[in-house]
C-alpha cells in the first residue's frame, strides 16, 4: 500500500478566512478598504494591481489562503472586473483568472460575478468576456510566462469548458474544438478518408472553409489562431512531458501542469460537442502513446498521471460513434475492432507477406493482445515499421518544435494502441467489485479523493452538463457512487479503530484493544459453515456461509439492542488488525496525515460479509414473531454470507502456502442502517450498465443534453380533450386560470354549476400569412390559445355517504393550473416550486387527473425522504381515489398519518377484510332478492350469484319503467325497484317525497352502480382468495392491483432488481423533491420495469423540486467539489434550458418573511387570500417584529468552538435560542408551533442539552422540535428560531441555497441568531441579510403585556434585550411570576 497524499491545510474549513482577517489590518484587507470597500469611488490605477496585489501574491506563490481572502473581499466583483478593458495588462488578466479559479474551487457562482448572468454593473459583458477569453488563450501559449502562471490560466480554460451552459462561454469555447482543428491532421488523405465516411462532416468542413474564405484579414488571423490553439497546446504539453529535469522548469510545476492538461483533454473527450472533432485529432497525434512512453509517466510518485492516462484512454476509445453520437452495442464495438484488425491483416498480407504472414493468418483474439501483436511486428525493420504505419493511416512524425522523435518503440506502441482489444464500459463495470477489501478500499485512487484540495485533479469521471450516452452516464455514476461509498466505509472503519485503540501486548506480541467503540467488537476466528459448489460457468463458490460469535455481556443495553437489530442483507466488515506499540506515533492523534489509513491503524486484511441471520447462543432467531426470542442476553451468533470471489482468492492463496487470513480476523465492524445500503444500490447501477434500453426514446436526447430542450415536452400523442374533474372549483375559476387564452363553451354549460370541467384544445385555424417569418409563426399559433370547455353531471354512485366523491377544495392559481395541465399531458414536465407555492398540491392533482382520465395506467411516486413521500401520499388519500389502488413500499410507511395501512401487508389484509365485508353484503342482497343458497361463501360463488340474479332483476325493473313510458311516476319507480329492501339501511330515505322522476331514475341507477361495484371489487379480490402465501398475494398486488405506487428513491435503488423481476409495469413517474435526488437515484426509478418491444412504456415523467434550495447531500465533499456528484437531474435540466413551470404565488409565510427569499425567484408573490387570515393579520405577541436578526456576542468569552471535526457549537446562541423559546412558552405559545433550527449537528446537540437542563420535566415549557436546516427542508412551522452558530468564518453557510431553506421554514415569525459582521458582508448573502437587517439594531426587541393570540394595543411598550444574560434574567423573572400565579390558583 502506498502512502496517501499530503492533506492540504486549507482542505479543512479552518483554512477559510476569518472575520478578523477580512476586517483587520492585513495587507489585502487594508488595500480593499483603500480601493473599493469605500463609499467614494477611487480612480483605477493599473500599477496598483502589480504592486499591491500581484507582487504580494507572487511572493506567496499565489497561496490559496491569500486568494480566498481576496475572493471574500469581492476583489473580482468590485475591483478587477469593473476596471477591465481591452487595454488591461497581463497582470490584470492573470488576477481575474486566479479569482475565477478560486470561485470554481469553492463551488461558488462564477460567471455571474463578471456579468454573464445579468449583473448590471457592466456596460458590455459579452465583449468584455470575449476580450478576456482571447487574452487568456494567447497567454496560455506564451512561453515567456512562468509555467506556474500558465497553469493558472489553463485552470481557467478547464473551468470555461465545464461551463458550457453559459451561452457566452460556449460561444468562445466552440471555435476551439470545431471541425477546423482537422487542418492539423497529419495528412490530407487521412482527413479526406474521415470526411468521406461521414457526409455530414464533409458539409461542416465546407461551411468552415467558406467562412474562412469570406473573412477579412483580421478575421482570418483569428480563425487560424482558433483552429491551431488546441494543436499548439497539445504539442507544448508533450514537450513538457518529455523535457529533461533541470532544464529551467520546476519539476513539480511541470507535473501539476501536465496533470491539469490531461484533465482538460478528458473534459473535452467526455462531452459530445467538444469530443466530435477533438477525438480524431488526439488519435492522430498519438497522445495516449506519447503520454505512456514519457519520462513523467513512469516517474510519477503517486501514480496520478498514470491514472489520468487510463481515464483519458477510456474516453478516447469509448464505444460511441463520435460524429453521429450513437452508442455502439457490444456487438457493434466488437465488429468495429475486428474491422481494424482485418485492415491490418490485409495490409500485412499484401505488403509484408514475407514477414507478417503469420499475423495475416492469426485469429482476432490473439491480435488484440499486446504481447502477441508486438511479437508479430518484431520482424519488421525500422523502415518497414514506418511504411506499415503510413499504410494504416498513422502519423509517423511530429513537427520540428517537438523535442522528441517518433522511434520504433513509439510506432509499435501506436499500432498496438489502435488494435488493442479493450474492455467496453459494460465489461469494465461488471469486473469492478462492489464489496471492498483492504486493497480496493485503501487503494491510492480511492484514498486520493479524500485529500483533494483543488491543486491537482482527480483521476475519476465528472458529471457534466451533457453525457456521451446513457451507458456513459451509468458508468460514471457507478464509479463515483463507489468512491462515495468507499469513502464512507473508510471513515466508519477509521473512527471505530481509533476508538478501539489497538495495541501490541508484550511479550506475546498479540493485539489488544484498550478502547471501545459501539460500532465494533473484538471477535475470534469466524467459523466456515458451508461452501456451496460453483455455478455453471463460474469458478468461485456459489455461496460461503460463516458464523461469528459476539460477546455482548458487558455492553450497554442500547449497544446490545443495536447489534441484535442487524437485518438480513446488512453488510458488516471483518478485519485483521495488528496493533502498534506505545512508541509508534502513527497511531496517535497527532500522527502524520501522509500515512495510509490502513497502515495507520494496522489493518492487514479486510473482508465484507452480509448478515444472514442473528441468533442467540441456542441458535434461536432474535426478533418478534413465532419461534423467536426477544433478546440474546449478551450471547449473539451472526450467520454471515462471505464475499465468495474473495473467499476463492483466499483459498487459492492458502493452497499456495500463504497464511489463512481468517485465522487473523479479530474485529467486526458494523455501520448505521441508513449508511449501509450501498451494496444493492451499486448492484442496481452495475446491472443497468448491462442493459441497452434504459429510458424512453422521447426522453433520451433531452437527458443526454442534446437537441431541442423542449423536445420531450410537446409529444404528438397529447390528447385533445382532458377531463379535469375537480381541478377547477367553478366556472369563474376556469376563466381566471387561463388569463391569456380565449375560453369557449362547448355544448350547454351551466356557469352556475361547479365541476367537473372538460378542457379541449381548439384546432388552429388557417390564417393569411404575413411578410415576416416571426409574424407568421405568431399568426399560426394565435388560434391555438383558444380552449373549449364542457361539463357534465357526475353519475350517482349510490345512496351511502361513502359513495359520494371526494372533491378538491384548493383554488389553484393560473400557474399551478398550467403545471397540472402539463403534467396531465404526456411527456416531461419540470415544475419549480419555491417555498410554500403548493407543489405537493399540484402533484396530487396531477395524480388524480391521470387516475381518472387513464384508468388503465399506473403511476409511480418517488421522493427523496420518507417524510416528503408520506406528505404527498397523505394528500393523495384525501382525493377521490379508491384506496385499494394505493400502495406504499418501504419502511417509511409507519410514519403515515392515515386511517388505513398502505403497506403491502396492510393492503393484502385490507383486501381480505373487504372480502369478508363484501361477501356479507352479497348474502344480504341475496336474502333481499329471495335467492336461496350460500352465495357469500367465496368470491367465486358471489360471481355466480351476480350473473344469475342481479342483471335479471335490474333488466326486469328497466322493462317495467320503459313500458310505463312518459307516465311513469316516482311511486312506480320506488315500488318496482328490486333493491329497495337492500337499501333500507341508508342514512336517509333513498327516494324522498319531493323527488322528480329524472332524479328518482338517477338515484335508482346509482343504487345499481353501488351493487355493481361490490361485485367488481370482489372480482378484483378473487386472486387474493386463490393465492395462498402472503408473498404471492403481495407480489400480485404490486403487479396487477395497485395503480398508484409510492416509494423513496433509495428503496427504488435497493429493490430495483427484485421489482423488475416481478414484471412490474408503470406508465407514469412523479418525483417530489427532485432537486434533492442525485442523478443516478433519479434514473434508477425510470428502469424498474423491463422494456416492451424494445421500448420503455413510460408516458410521463414529472419532476417537482426547487434547485434554488439544497442539493443532494454527500459525505465526501471532495467528490462534490470536483465531480459534481451532488448534481441533480432536475438542476441539470434547468441549466440545459428545458422548459420549466415556476410556481409564482406562495401561501406559507407572511409577506414580510417571504420577502427575505422571494428575490431569489422570478415574480414570486403572496396569495391575496393569505392576508385575510386572522393569524397573518395579528403581530407576534411579545415581539416587536415579525422577523429579526439578533446579534449574539461572545458568551463567557467564547463564540463558535469545534470540539470535534465538523462538530461546530456556540453556547451563547444555544442559551439565547432556548431563552427565546422559554419566553414564548411563558406567553402561551404552543410548543408544537415552535421549531429551533441550526445548520450544524453539533449545535443541535448543544441546544438539546440546554433544553434538557432548562425545560425538561417542566410542564410550563415542554420541549420544541430541534432540527438541522438540511433535515428540515420540506417542513414548516409557525415560528422558527434559527441559530447560525458561526462567529469566525462563514463555512458552508455561504451557500445561499441553504440560507434560503432556513429562512423559508417559518410562517409567522422568524428570529435569527448570529454574528452580524460574519454574514452581512458576504456577496452571496448580501441581498438576504440586507432585508433581514431592516428590523431592529441587532438587539432583540420585545413588547410587554401581551399573550399569545391577543390583539396588540397602541399602548404596548417595547423593551430591548442587551444580550443573552439580560434575556435570561428577564425570562427567569417571568418564570417566577408565572409560578407564583399558578400557585395562587391552587
UniProtKB/TrEMBL annotation:
Residues 745-782 are annotated as: Disordered. It holds the Pfam family Aquarius_N_3rd. Residues 502-671 form the RNA helicase aquarius beta-barrel domain. Residues 815-1113 form the DNA2/NAM7 helicase helicase domain. Residues 28-423 form the RNA helicase aquarius N-terminal domain. The keyword Transport does not apply. It is found in: Nucleus. One of its GO terms (cellular component) is U2-type spliceosomal complex. Residues 717-804 form the RNA helicase aquarius insertion domain. InterPro entries: Aquarius_b-barrel, Aquarius_insert, Aquarius_N, CWF11_fam, DNA2/NAM7-like, DNA2/NAM7-like_C, DNA2/NAM7_AAA_11, P-loop_NTPase. Residues 1125-1316 form the DNA2/NAM7 helicase-like C-terminal domain. CDD domains: EEXXQc_AQR, SF1_C_Upf1. Keywords: ATP-binding, Helicase, Hydrolase, mRNA processing, mRNA splicing, Nucleotide-binding, Nucleus. The keyword Hydrolase applies. One of its GO terms (molecular function) is helicase activity. It comes from the Eukaryota. Belongs to the CWF11 family. Belongs to the 40S cdc5-associated complex (or cwf complex), a spliceosome sub-complex reminiscent of a late-stage spliceosome. PANTHER family: DNA2/NAM7 HELICASE FAMILY, RNA HELICASE AQUARIUS. This is Pre-mRNA-splicing factor. It comes from Pyronema omphalodes (strain CBS 100304) (Pyronema confluens).
Amino acid at each position: 500500500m502506498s502512502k496517501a497524499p499530503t492533506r492540504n491545510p486549507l482542505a479543512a474549513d479552518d483554512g477559510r478566512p476569518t472575520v478578523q482577517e477580512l476586517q483587520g489590518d492585513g495587507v489585502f484587507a487594508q488595500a480593499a478598504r483603500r480601493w473599493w470597500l469605500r463609499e467614494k469611488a477611487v480612480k483605477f490605477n493599473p500599477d496598483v494591481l502589480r504592486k499591491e496585489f500581484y507582487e504580494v501574491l507572487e511572493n506567496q506563490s499565489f497561496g490559496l489562503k491569500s486568494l480566498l481572502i481576496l475572493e471574500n473581499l469581492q476583489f473580482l466583483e468590485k475591483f478587477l472586473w469593473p476596471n477591465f478593458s481591452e487595454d488591461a495588462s497581463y497582470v490584470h488578466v492573470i488576477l481575474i483568472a486566479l479569482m475565477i479559479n478560486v470561485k470554481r474551487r469553492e463551488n461558488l457562482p462564477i460567471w455571474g460575478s463578471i456579468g454573464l448572468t445579468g449583473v448590471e454593473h457592466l456596460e458590455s459583458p459579452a465583449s468584455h468576456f470575449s476580450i478576456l477569453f482571447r487574452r487568456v488563450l494567447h497567454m496560455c501559449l506564451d512561453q515567456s510566462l512562468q509555467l506556474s502562471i500558465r497553469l493558472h490560466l489553463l485552470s481557467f480554460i478547464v473551468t470555461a469548458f465545464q461551463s458550457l451552459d453559459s451561452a457566452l462561454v460556449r460561444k468562445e469555447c466552440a471555435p476551439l474544438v470545431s471541425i477546423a482543428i482537422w487542418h492539423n491532421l497529419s495528412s490530407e488523405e487521412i482527413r479526406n478518408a474521415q470526411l468521406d465516411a461521414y457526409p455530414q462532416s464533409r458539409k461542416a468542413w465546407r461551411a468552415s472553409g467558406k467562412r474562412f474564405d469570406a473573412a477579412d484579414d483580421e478575421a482570418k488571423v483569428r480563425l487560424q489562431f482558433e483552429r491551431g490553439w488546441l494543436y499548439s497546446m497539445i504539442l507544448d504539453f508533450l514537450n513538457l512531458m518529455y523535457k529533461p529535469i533541470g532544464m529551467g522548469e520546476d519539476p513539480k510545476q511541470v507535473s501539476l501542469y501536465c496533470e491539469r492538461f490531461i484533465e482538460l483533454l478528458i473534459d473535452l473527450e467526455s462531452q459530445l460537442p467538444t469530443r466530435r472533432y477533438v477525438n480524431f485529432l488526439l488519435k492522430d497525434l498519438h497522445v495516449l502513446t506519447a503520454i505512456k512512453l514519457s519520462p513523467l509517466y513512469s516517474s510519477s510518485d503517486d501514480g496520478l498521471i498514470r491514472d489520468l492516462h487510463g481515464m483519458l484512454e477510456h474516453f478516447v476509445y469509448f464505444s460511441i460513434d463520435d460524429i453521429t453520437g450513437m452508442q455502439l452495442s457490444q456487438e457493434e464495438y466488437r465488429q468495429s475492432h475486428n474491422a481494424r484488425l482485418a485492415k491490418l491483416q490485409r495490409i500485412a498480407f499484401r505488403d509484408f507477406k514475407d514477414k507478417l504472414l503469420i499475423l495475416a493468418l492469426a485469429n482476432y483474439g490473439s491480435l488484440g493482445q499486446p504481447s502477441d501483436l508486438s511479437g508479430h511486428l518484431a520482424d519488421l525493420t525500422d523502415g518497414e515499421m514506418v511504411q506499415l504505419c503510413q499504410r494504416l493511416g498513422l502519423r509517423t512524425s511530429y513537427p520540428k518544435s517537438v523535442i522528441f522523435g517518433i522511434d520504433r518503440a513509439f510506432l509499435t506502441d501506436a499500432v498496438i494502441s489502435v488494435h488493442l482489444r479493450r474492455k467496453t464500459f459494460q465489461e469494465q463495470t461488471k469486473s469492478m467489485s462492489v464489496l471492498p477489501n483492504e486493497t480496493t478500499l485503501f487503494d491510492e485512487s480511492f484514498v486520493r479523493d479524500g485529500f483533494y484540495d483543488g491543486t491537482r485533479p482527480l483521476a475519476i469521471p465528472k458529471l457534466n452538463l451533457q453525457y456521451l450516452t446513457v451507458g456513459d452516464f451509468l458508468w460514471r455514476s457507478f464509479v463515483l457512487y463507489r468512491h462515495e461509498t468507499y469513502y464512507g466505509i473508510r471513515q466508519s472503519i477509521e473512527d471505530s479503530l481509533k476508538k478501539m485503540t489497538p495495541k501490541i501486548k508484550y511479550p506475546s506480541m498479540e493485539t489488544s484493544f484498550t478502547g471501545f467503540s459501539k460500532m465494533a467488537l473484538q471477535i475470534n476466528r469466524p467459523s466456515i459453515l458451508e461452501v456451496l459448489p460453483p455455478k455453471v460457468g463460474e469458478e468461485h463458490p456459489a455461496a460461503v456461509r460463516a458464523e461469528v460469535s459476539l460477546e455482548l455481556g458487558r455492553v450497554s443495553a442500547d449497544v446490545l439492542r443495536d447489534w441484535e437489530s442487524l437485518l438480513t442483507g446488512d453488510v458488516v466488515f471483518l478485519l485483521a488488525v495488528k496493533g502498534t506499540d506505545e512508541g509508534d506515533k502513527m497511531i496517535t492523534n497527532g500522527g502524520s496525515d501522509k500515512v495510509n489509513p490502513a497502515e495507520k491503524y494496522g489493518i492487514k486484511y479486510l473482508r465484507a460479509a452480509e448478515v444472514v441471520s442473528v441468533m442467540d447462543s441456542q441458535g434461536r432467531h432474535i426478533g418478534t414473531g413465532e419461534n423467536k426470542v426477544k433478546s440474546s442476553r449478551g450471547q449473539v451468533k451472526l450467520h454471515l454470507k462471505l464475499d465468495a470471489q474473495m473467499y476463492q482468492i483466499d483459498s487459492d492463496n492458502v493452497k499456495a502456502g500463504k497464511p489463512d487470513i481468517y485465522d487473523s480476523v479479530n474485529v467486526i465492524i458494523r455501520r448505521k442502517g441508513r449508511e449501509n445500503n450501498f451494496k444493492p444500490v451499486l448492484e442496481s447501477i452495475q446491472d443497468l450498465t448491462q442493459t441497452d434500453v434504459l429510458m424512453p426514446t422521447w426522453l433520451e436526447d433531452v437527458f443526454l443534453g442534446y437537441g431541442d430542450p423542449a423536445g420531450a415536452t410537446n409529444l404528438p400523442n397529447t390528447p385533445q380533450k382532458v377531463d379535469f374533474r375537480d381541478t377547477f372549483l367553478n366556472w369563474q375559476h376556469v376563466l381566471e386560470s387561463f388569463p391569456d387564452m380565449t375560453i369557449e363553451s362547448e355544448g350547454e354549460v351551466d356557469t352556475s354549476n361547479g365541476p367537473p370541467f372538460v378542457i379541449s384544445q381548439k384546432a388552429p385555424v388557417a390564417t393569411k400569412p404575413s411578410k415576416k417569418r416571426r409574424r407568421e409563426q405568431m399568426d399560426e399559433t394565435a388560434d391555438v390559445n383558444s380552449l373549449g370547455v364542457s361539463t357534465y353531471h357526475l353519475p350517482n354512485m349510490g345512496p351511502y355517504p361513502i359513495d359520494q366523491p371526494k372533491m378538491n377544495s384548493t383554488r389553484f392559481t393560473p400557474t399551478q393550473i398550467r403545471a397540472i395541465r402539463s403534467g396531465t399531458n404526456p411527456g416531461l414536465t419540470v415544475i419549480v416550486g419555491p417555498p410554500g407555492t403548493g407543489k405537493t398540491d399540484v402533484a396530487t392533482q396531477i395524480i388524480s387527473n391521470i387516475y381518472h382520465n387513464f384508468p388503465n395506467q399506473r403511476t409511480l411516486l418517488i421522493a427523496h425522504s420518507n417524510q416528503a413521500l408520506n406528505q404527498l401520499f397523505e394528500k393523495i388519500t384525501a382525493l377521490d381515489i379508491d384506496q385499494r389502488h394505493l400502495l406504499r413500499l418501504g419502511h417509511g410507511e409507519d410514519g403515515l398519518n392515515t386511517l388505513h395501512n398502505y403497506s403491502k401487508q396492510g393492503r393484502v389484509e385490507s383486501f381480505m377484510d373487504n372480502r369478508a365485508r363484501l361477501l356479507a353484503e352479497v348474502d344480504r342482497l341475496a336474502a333481499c332478492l329471495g335467492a336461496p343458497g350460500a352465495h357469500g361463501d367465496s368470491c367465486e360463488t358471489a360471481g355466480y350469484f351476480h350473473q344469475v340474479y342481479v342483471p335479471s332483476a335490474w333488466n326486469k325493473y328497466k322493462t317495467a319503467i320503459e313500458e310505463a313510458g312518459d307516465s311513469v311516476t316516482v311511486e312506480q319507480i320506488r315500488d318496482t325497484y328490486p333493491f329497495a329492501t337492500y337499501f333500507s339501511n341508508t342514512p336517509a330515505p333513498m327516494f324522498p317525497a319531493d323527488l322528480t322522476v329524472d332524479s328518482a331514475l338517477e338515484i335508482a341507477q346509482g343504487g345499481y352502480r353501488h351493487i355493481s361495484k361490490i361485485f367488481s371489487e370482489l372480482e378484483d379480490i378473487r386472486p387474493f382468495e386463490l393465492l395462498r402465501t402472503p408473498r404471492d398475494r403481495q407480489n400480485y398486488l404490486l403487479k396487477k392491483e395497485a395503480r398508484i405506487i409510492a416509494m423513496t428513491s433509495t428503496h427504488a435503488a435497493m429493490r430495483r432488481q427484485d421489482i423488475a423481476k416481478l414484471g412490474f409495469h408503470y406508465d407514469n413517474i412523479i418525483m417530489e423533491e427532485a432537486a434533492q435526488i442525485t442523478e443516478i437515484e433519479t434514473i434508477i426509478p425510470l428502469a424498474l420495469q423491463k422494456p416492451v418491444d424494445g421500448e420503455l412504456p413510460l408516458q410521463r415523467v414529472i419532476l417537482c423540486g426547487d434547485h434554488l434550495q439544497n442539493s443532494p447531500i454527500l459525505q465526501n465533499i471532495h467528490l462534490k467539489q470536483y465531480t459534481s456528484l451532488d448534481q441533480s437531474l432536475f438542476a441539470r435540466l434547468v441549466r440545459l434550458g428545458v422548459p420549466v413551470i415556476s410556481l409564482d404565488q406562495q401561501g406559507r409565510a407572511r409577506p414580510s418573511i417571504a420577502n427575505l427569499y422571494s428575490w431569489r425567484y422570478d415574480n414570486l408573490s403572496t396569495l391575496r387570500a393569505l392576508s385575510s387570515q386572522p393569524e397573518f393579520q395579528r403581530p407576534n405577541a411579545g415581539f416587536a417584529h415579525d422577523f429579526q436578526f439578533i446579534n449574539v456576542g461572545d458568551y463567557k468569552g467564547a463564540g463558535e468552538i469545534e470540539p470535534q471535526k465538523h462538530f461546530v457549537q456556540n453556547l451563547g446562541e444555544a442559551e439565547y435560542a432556548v431563552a427565546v423559546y422559554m419566553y414564548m412558552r411563558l406567553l402561551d405559545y404552543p410548543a408544537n408551533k415552535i421549531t429551533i433550527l441550526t445548520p450544524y449537528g453539533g449545535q443541535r446537540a448543544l441546544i438539546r442539552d440546554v433544553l434538557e437542563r432548562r425545560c425538561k420535566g417542566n410542564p410550563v415549557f415542554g420541549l420544541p422540535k430541534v432540527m438541522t436546516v438540511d433535515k428540515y427542508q420540506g417542513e414548516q412551522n409557525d415560528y422558527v428560531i434559527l441559530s447560525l452558530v458561526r462567529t469566525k468564518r462563514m463555512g458552508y453557510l455561504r451557500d445561499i441555497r441553504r440560507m434560503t431553506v432556513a429562512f423559508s421554514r417559518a410562517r409567522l415569525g422568524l428570529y435569527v441568531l448570529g454574528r452580524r459582521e460574519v454574514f452581512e458582508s458576504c456577496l452571496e448573502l448580501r441581498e438576504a441579510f440586507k432585508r433581514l437587517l431592516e428590523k431592529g439594531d441587532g438587539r432583540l426587541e420585545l413588547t410587554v403585556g401581551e399573550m399569545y393570540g391577543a390583539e396588540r394595543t397602541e399602548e404596548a411598550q417595547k423593551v430591548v434585550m442587551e444580550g443573552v444574560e439580560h434575556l435570561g434574567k428577564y425570562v427567569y423573572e417571568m418564570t417566577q411570576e408565572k409560578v407564583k400565579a399558578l400557585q395562587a390558583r391552587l
